[in-house]
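Hi everyone,

Forwarding the result from last night's run.
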Amino acid sequence: MFMMLVVVAVEEAMANALVVIGDSSDFPDARVNPDSTIAQEAKAKRTVREVVREFDRTEDDYIEPPHFEMAVELRATRNFEDFILSSNGQSIMFSPDQRIKVGPYFGWRWIFLGTTFDLKDISLFSHDGKREIDLSIYSSQVGVDLYYRRTGSDYKLREVRMGYGIDGSQFDGIPFDGVNVGVTGINAYYIFNHHHFSYPAAFSPGTCQKISCGSWLAGAGYTKNTLDLDFDKLQQLVERRLSDGMEAKLDSGMMFDNVEYNDFSLSVGYAYTWVLGKGFIFCASGQAAVAYKTSYGNTAGEKDGFSFGKVNLDGIGRFALVYNNTRWYAGLNAILRTKNYHTSRFTANNIFGSFNAYVGYNFIKKRKYRKK
């Protein structure tokens, strides 16, 4: 499956785009006549440049800026997902087999592009309907997550609880292609202590955190979720696997074909980076989101209009262990997300994320770090 990860520091890119902007010395008329159109344009450009620079300003005592322009990286990724559907004491966990994908990434300043290949099926395109695209922006002051996921049809049953007297272990690992989950969303957050705390140092190696430090985070997000379930196929599968003489009926709360719901959320969290030694850091962060969900589809019993019953809690956690000596870097990280949906009929919990291991090499030093 084709995978692309773009890691862009937005304000840094803007600053570089504005490098061509000069000061008043580039506009002779500005010195002669400060009220001229050229002078006003020069002043406006200087103001924009200063705003951009201030937006990304950090303190060198805490954060070492990037020394190089380009990088090459080898990355291994293992994605995972658990989807839990429950109703009136019954619950079924659906989860695909986890696979390892490996591939190269190439970076220019703050832009990283790459692709990974499934080691069991080396192909640019998925053959099972699975689609996963994640884009994360880690800048010093603002972070943005964009994600698009379509689960495909390679789910298997896990941890089935049908009720008293039914041994759920007999269903473990059985393939089931009658459920599909889709998640499309964006989440943006602000890093309050960005002068001292560097998120890119942990998740987009380039900068280096020099002193242990943390920061509060606050953000907002929107997610569109879709859920398709072939209830009849699931009931038939359960009946086929039961021992002779045993019967089990799935709760009617799971009897739906399609549900689509929109998720509007406000989040707050905290991140902290420990400097373990020269070049070594460990970062952990978590955000809890209060999400209001509105749904469409076959969800009988749902109330129209505002209801506190539509308010749920979602979450995201990030963890990273990184070594970076400005020339070489290597690390491990994990990003975990939870999306929860509760109705009067059923509860759906979607937990997904990725584990990544990588090693990279920076090259082409920036001018100010070159030996004279």
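The first strand starts at residue 63 and ends at 64.

Cheers,
N.
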